[in-house]
Write a structure and sequence with these properties.
Helices cover 37% and strands 19% of the residues. It has 143 residues and is of the alpha/beta class. It has one domain: Rossmann fold. α3 packs parallel to α4. The site of 1,3,4-trihydroxy-5-OXO-cyclohexanecarboxylic acid (DQA) has 10 residues, from loops.
Length: 143
């Protein structure tokens, strides 16, 4: 079965209680289960990970690059300023899909800039947990 990494950045471990009016009421564990189940239906083995640590997230991207593994990435706040994360994304060899629960373009101005988008195969934002489902479906159609 093809592997896919579903990588998540800072504060996403707080889903369920974090600003539910913006991010919804689903917990991170529930989101992870949804991703694993959806991936399985599509023939992928999803590894869902979350970290609040930029270095750890970059390390996972290096792993994906070395393994030619596609990545679905919600970089969270790193989206907007982490050039180190962007540089790690530039090393990926398989598709990269950027996802967001909310629509950053409909929010504060500092969220309008993504340093990752220019390297992504595509971006899906604004559909809550469904953004991840759509990203997995998009990946299945790519590969
Ligand atoms: C987010 C949007 C980012 O602006 C924010 O910093 C997050 C979550 C989203 O999924 O909507 O942490 O990536």
């Amino acid at each position: 079965m093809h592997e896919v990494y579903v990588l998540n950045g800072p504060n996403l471990n707080r889903l369920g209680t974090r600003e539910p009016e913006i991010y919804g009421s689903m917990t991170f564990a529930q989101l992870a289960d949804l991703c694993v189940a959806t991936a399985r239906e599509l023939g992928f083995l999803a590894q869902v990970r979350q970290t609040n640590d930029e270095a750890e997230l970059i390390g996972w991207l290096h792993e994906a690059a070395d393994g030619n593994i596609p990545v679905i990435l919600n970089p969270a706040a790193f989206t907007h300023y982490s050039y180190a994360l962007r540089d790690a994304c530039a090393m990926l060899t398989a598709p990269l899909i950027e996802v967001h629960l909310s629509n950053p373009l409909a929010r504060e101005e500092f969220r309008h800039m993504s340093v990752v988008s220019g390297l992504a195969t595509g971006t899906i934002a604004g559909f809550g947990a469904t953004s991840y489902v759509l990203a997995l479906e998009a990946l299945a159609r790519q590969t």
